[in-house]
Amino acid sequence: MVREKDICWEYAEKLDGNKVKCKFCLRILNGGISRLKHHLSRLPSKGVNPCSKVRDDVSDRVRAIIASKDDFKETGNAKKQKAVEGKSTVNVTPSRSLLSVEATASTPVMAKVYPTVMPMPMAAPPLSSQENAEKNIALFFFENKLDFSVARSPSYQLMVDAIGKCGAGFTGPSADMLKTTWLERIKSEVSLQTKDAEKEWATTGCTIIADTWIDNKSRALINFLVSSPSRTFFHKSVDASSIFKNTKCVADLFDSVIQDFGAENVVQIIMDSGFNYASIANHILQNYGTIFVSTCASQCLNLILEEFSKVDWVNKCISQAQTISKLIYNSVSILDLMKKFTGGQELIKTGITKPVSNFLSLQSMLKQRSRLKQMLNSPEFSMNSSYANNPKHLACIAIIEDGDFWRAVEESVAISEPFLKVMREVSDGKPAVGSIYELMTRAKESIRTYYIMDESKCKTFLDIVDRKWGDQLHSPLHSAAAFLNPSVQYNPEIKFLVSIKEDFFKVIEKLLPTPDMRRDITNQIFIFTRASGMFGCNLAMEARDTVAPGLWWEQFGDSAPVLQRVAIRILSQVCSTFTFEKHWSTFQQIHSEKRNKIDKEMLNDLAYINYNLRLTRQMRTKPLETDPIQFDDIDMTSEWVEESDNPSPTQWLDRFGSTLDGSDLNTRFHAAIFGANDHLFGL
C-alpha cells in the first residue's frame, strides 16, 4: 500500500526484488523508491548517481518531497526529545522537593531557590559541502537579482568546475578586473572568431541581417548581424530613432554597413518588411548590382499564422482552448491534478510569437485530449464540490466535452502544422534559402489536400498565404536557389521547375553581369540539369538528399566551375532573422541619453560579447531535440494563462518560478527578472 500511495512511482518501473527502473534515463537502481528519489533529485551527496535526463520540474518536486520527509523526521525527533526531557524533569522534582524541605527544616530563615532545567533548542543539521556550496550560489543569485535561467547556461557549469579545480582559497576577479582586463581580453577573443568566419566569404558570400525594433514612442533600434555557413555574429547596434523616417539617412546607414563587410562579399540583405522596406530595398538594388534584398521568412510565416488565427471559427477555437488553460493554470489543485494525468507534461506551449504560441498550444491540447477527459471523470475531480458548483468550471467542462470544439482544434492544427514546419526549417540557423520555395509549395499543397471537399475554406486560407508569400517574401533568389538545389532539381515529383526557370536566369544575369563571365554558363547549366559529368556519379546521386546543397556543389560541381561558384554563394545563405534571440531592453539602455561616453562604450563592448557568445553557443551546442520556435518555459503572463489584465503583485510572485525567461512574445525583451529598467552591469 505504501508503494501505491507514493507519487514518485509514476517516474519509475518496479522490477524484481528491490530494484526500480528510472523512466527518464532507464537506469536500474537497487534500493527501491527511496533510492530513486535521490536519483531524481540530483543530489550527489546522497551517494546515488544523479539522473541526467530528468526534467527540472520533476527534480524540484522530488526534492520538495525529500525535504518534507526530513522535516517530518526532525519534528518526530523533537517530540521524542521533549518527552525524554519531560520524564527527566519529573524524576528530578521529588529530590528537589525533598532538598527544599530539608533545607527549610534546617535553615528556616532562608529559602533555597533552584533554577528550572530548560531543554536545549534543537540545532539545525549541519550542511554538507555540496549543500553549503549550493546555498551560497543561491544567495549570489538572490542578492544580485540574476535570472534563474542563467543556471542553464553551459558557461555556468564551466565556471563552477573551474572554481572547483582551483581549490580552497580561490579569490574571484575584482569588479575593476572584470570591466578592464577581462572585458578587453574576451572581446579580443570574440573578435578573432569573427575574423576566422570572414575567410569563407570570398567563396560563400554572406547575408547581412538588419533586425529592427520600433516602440510606441517612435524609438527605433537596428541590430546588424552577418551570417555565413560557419556562423552568424553580431556586428553592432544603432539607434535610428532620429533618422528612421528619413530614407536618405537610413540608406546611408546601410551603405556604411555594406562597406564594413565589402559589397563584393554580400549576397543578400534581410530586412524587416515594415521598416521603410520598399525605399531602402530600391536603393540597395539600384546601387549594388549583385546584392539581393529579402524580407524575413519567419516574419512572413508568422503573419500567415496571425491571419489564420483571425478567421472567425479559428479565433473562437483558440478562445475556447484558452478558457480551459486559464482555469487549469490559475488553480493549484487542478494544475496538480492535470499534471498527474499528463505525466507531468504541460498542457500549453510558448512559442517565439503569439500566433506560434496559439497553434503550438492547440497541438499540445489535442495530444492531451483523452487525459483531460479522464481527469474530468476522475473521483478526485468529480467528488470535489468546489469544482462541480463553480460556473467557470462548468463552462470549461462543457467545452472539453464538446465534439465540435475538438473538431475545430483538429482542423486548426491540420492547417497550421505545415507552416510551423516551414518556420522550424528556416529558423534553426542553417542556410535554408534553397529549401524555402519547395517547403512553401508543399505547405500550400497540404491545404489543398486537406480541403479537397471544401473549396470555400481552401480558398480562404490559400488567399492568405498567397498575399503574404507572393507580395512580401518571395524573391528571385529563392527560385534560383530551388533550381540549384539537387534535392529539388532531380526530384521527379517536383512540378514547378519550369515556372522558376525565368527567375533563375535573372539571378544568373545579375551575379554574372558581363558576357565574358557568362561565356560557358549555358553549357554548364545543361550539364547540371542532365546530371552529366561528376553530377551523375554514384556519390553525387547518393548525397542529393543527405548533404547540404552548398556543400554538395562544393564536392561535386567541378564539371561546371562557373555555375559552381554561383551556386555555392546562393545556397550558403539563411533566410530568417528569428533564429537569433533579441535583447532589445539591453540595447535600449545602451543608447540612453543619460549615459556618458565611457558607460556607452563599455555597454557596447558587453553587448557585443554577450550577443556573440549566445549566437556561438546556439550554433554549436544546440540539442537535436530543441524546437527553434518554442521556449522551454511557459509564459505565465500570456493569454493562455493570465485571467486579469492587471495582475496583482501577489499573483505575479506566485508564478515567479515559471516566468524565468523574461521574454515578451512580441518584442522578446530579455531583461533581468526584476524588470527591463534595472541598470545593466551596474552602469
TrEMBL record:
<dbReference type="InterPro" id="IPR012337">
    <property type="entry name" value="RNaseH-like_sf"/>
</dbReference>
<dbReference type="Pfam" id="PF04937">
    <property type="entry name" value="DUF659"/>
</dbReference>
<keyword id="KW-0539">Nucleus</keyword>
<dbReference type="GO" id="GO:0008270">
    <property type="term" value="F:zinc ion binding"/>
</dbReference>
<keyword id="KW-0479">Metal-binding</keyword>
<dbReference type="Pfam" id="PF05699">
    <property type="entry name" value="Dimer_Tnp_hAT"/>
</dbReference>
<keyword id="KW-0862">Zinc</keyword>
<dbReference type="InterPro" id="IPR007021">
    <property type="entry name" value="DUF659"/>
</dbReference>
<dbReference type="GO" id="GO:0003677">
    <property type="term" value="F:DNA binding"/>
</dbReference>
<protein>
    <recommendedName>
        <fullName>BED-type domain-containing protein</fullName>
    </recommendedName>
</protein>
<dbReference type="InterPro" id="IPR003656">
    <property type="entry name" value="Znf_BED"/>
</dbReference>
<feature type="domain" description="BED-type">
    <location>
        <begin position="3"/>
        <end position="58"/>
    </location>
</feature>
<dbReference type="InterPro" id="IPR008906">
    <property type="entry name" value="HATC_C_dom"/>
</dbReference>
<keyword id="KW-0238">DNA-binding</keyword>
<keyword id="KW-0863">Zinc-finger</keyword>
<dbReference type="GO" id="GO:0005634">
    <property type="term" value="C:nucleus"/>
</dbReference>
<dbReference type="Pfam" id="PF02892">
    <property type="entry name" value="zf-BED"/>
</dbReference>
<dbReference type="GO" id="GO:0046983">
    <property type="term" value="F:protein dimerization activity"/>
</dbReference>
